Each structure stands twice: as structure tokens, then as C-alpha cells.
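Deliverable D4.2, example record:
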Amino acid sequence: MTPCTILYVEDELFLGKIVKESLESRGYHVVMESDGAHVMELFHNTNPDICVLDVMLPGVDGFTLASSIRESNEQIPIIFLTAKTQTADLVKGFSLGGNDYIRKPFSMEELIVRIENVMKSKRASRVVEEPTEQVSIGKYHFHFVRQTLVSGTDERKLSFRESELLRLLYAHRDRIIDRREILNLLWGNDSFFNSRNLDVYITKLRSYLRDDERLSIITIKGVGYRFAVGG
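Output generated by the structure prediction step:
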């Protein structure tokens, strides 16, 4: 099996060398860059399976890189590394399509577990249901690749997380899906912080779908959700 290729962006060269060697000793192929200004060229040349981005970088910061990466590839997992602790920074990272967020300092064991979790989530989302390109949900057309929800002439651009959540709910439509399963598939763990994020995204999707009374995301208390799709 071909080893997972990680694009690792870190400007602390001593730390970067340790992390790179540790990951390579576990069988990963690691491509490392220290200057954010050179990352996109490297991204296109190496076609990595996952990106691990330090937020504070010279040239171009990690958040800006994530935005550029998402424009080029909507599905590739992104993990942020940062010493920042403000909730606003975490929210910004997730809103840009980040899959996970690790605070410095971190252990190699934690990093490896989080890499494996987001990769497993990516593989699982493929297994759940592989759509051709778009599906009709009530009065809406949901474009998986473009990450848009269209109703007539109204087109709403979804964030990566919104799109993945709607995709998962649709794949389990008219059935109950466990809340913990959603958290583990989309965030890699069911922590309190991720659980609150899920609440926010569920509220957003309900607001996006509110114009079609046949559609409802029903909360099953203590269990999860059921996406009811009327005829």
C-alpha cells in the first residue's frame, strides 16, 4: 500500500525536523516546507493526501494557505498547528475548512492519532455514499463537488464542513444517525468543543433548508439526528 503523503508546513526548523523524522519512522512520506510563500507550488507538485499547517508562518500564514488549498482541493484533510488559544482563532480555522486543530506544544502520539482520525474520516465518507455529482433534496439541488445548495436562481455556497455534514445526513436520510458517529467521522473525536460546533452547523443547515417544509433535521435526544426528506 502506498504510504500517506503529508504536506507539513512549519517554520520552526528544529521542531519540524523532529516531527518529520518521527512521522517518517512510522511509515509516512513527509514533504516539509518552512516558508508559506512556497507552499502552493509544492502542494500542486506533490499532490499530498493531507496537509498539516502551522498557523504562524513567514510569507503567507496557515489560514491563508488553507483558503488557497480549499480553492484547489475541496476534500483534502487539513490539520492546523498553533500556539494560539483564542476561540475565535479555532472558529476561523474550522470555517476555512480545517478538519482539526492542535495546540502547541503537542505530543507525536497526539499528532499521529489525529492524522489517522481525519484520514479514516475521509475514507469513511467515501464508503457511506459516493454520489455522481449532485442530488435533489426537496426543492434544492445539492452539488457535492461545488459545495452549493441551489433553489431556483438562488445559489448558496456551503463551507467544507457544512457540505460534509449535509452529505452525511443525506446519505442516512430518513434514518437515525448517531451523534457520536457524526463527530468522529467529520471531526475525528467527540470532544465537548466539537460537539458544540456540530450544534452550530446543524442550526445553519436547518436555516438553509427552512423554505421547504418537507425537509427537517430532527433531534433525537440522547441519540443523534434524523434527516426527514418528504416526498
